[in-house]
Amino acid sequence: MKGYSRYFWAIHFIGDLFIVNFAFLLTFYLKFDTLMFSDKYKFLFIIFNAIWILVALFLQLYELKRLMRLDRILFNLFKAFVFNALIISSILFSLKASEFSREHLYATYLLLFALIMLWRYSAIKLIYIYRKSGFNYKRVIIVGGGEVANQLYTYFISDDVLGVRIKGVFSDSEISFDIKDKIKSGNLDEFESFALDQDIDEIYYAMPLTYTQKIKDLVDFCDKNMMRFKVVPDFRGFLFKRVNIDFFDDVPVVTLRAEPLTDITNRFFKRVFDILFSSLVIIFVLSWLYPIIAILIKFSSKGPVLFKQARSGVANVEFMCYKFRSMTQSIDADTKQASKGDARITKIGAFLRKSSLDEFPQFINVFMGDMSIVGPRPHMLAHTEEYSALINKYMVRQLVKPGITGAAQVKGYRGETKELKDMEGRVRLDVWYIENWSLSVDINIIFLTVWNVFKGDENAF
Prior knowledge:
The protein is α/β, with parallel strands linked by helices. Helices cover 50% and strands 12% of the residues.
């Protein structure tokens, strides 16, 4: 049996929607001892469902690859609950709807979270058992015996829940990796008869693309016998993980780096998100936090409240980056990174840096358009010049706006870069971010940043 994977998202969606309504109705009944809604609660009931659907689709909760690991389930659902609660609260606040029961809403969210977690965990276990039992899988053959074929083979056999069964590996040269006993191996002369005998669904070609006639013959065979043919090109020599293929008439053009933010619509949504987020922080946090920190800084050492420094921005255009001053003034501020135990760091500065409060003035940079909430961290001009000569892909970072936080910072590359490999690791993650950007990625990084602040980061000094 195969072909049912496309329905798994619908099963999760319907199950979630049922639980959303069940939780709302049950807590309503327990609170008011009736299921007769007034008009205001009918409105809330409709809004509650609509917001859940929009948030779930926005955060891509129903992508199958996001449903496998329990920690990811928990984290994605937590984000959905936070956004759902914020939106509902904003709607009720804007309508001045104080007559709604807070106890009912709190109880609904608690019950909803518990039931959906139980439902998701059970559903994924059922999918696993279903596929483990031999249902809902595709029979595939790998054509090739090199390193790319090996990587693909290792991925396919890594977990039964992927829904793929490798039936054979065929190559016109020696196969360079070990194959399980139940999987057929052989040369290409045996391929066609075996594929027909085993009712194969998909063929994965992992040999050189220069074998044009061989590829053509395989494509013709697959088309004739209703098998899907997929090419696995060898891009291991590049840093890039995602590629796009466009056609100029009949000429294929491969773009080695996908850049979602080259699309004007994506840039628009990211900018709107930046403006809204930075505005909320400036109005509701920075407005009262700034004078408090300003007084503490003035009492701790001489000098201005804000530390202003020229940094490298998008397209390598310089901009003035703002931070709360956490160090004494020095002549090497534009060339020397802060290090652990740095004598320049003041007492209040140590707290500001540890808690990341020193970065809050950068929300002004975001509002002004020089920075984004999420992106590669902006570096000092001297470091941009230095590392661009040492690291091959360094300047790729400058293709997008720098951010207050970024993928590198939440993955352990925050703070001082003592060795070249530290900066290489940061650049690798920054390039990954540029190639894989989405609003859900930004939101995920923001949540991880907040989590790291409360958890503590050993690189924060």
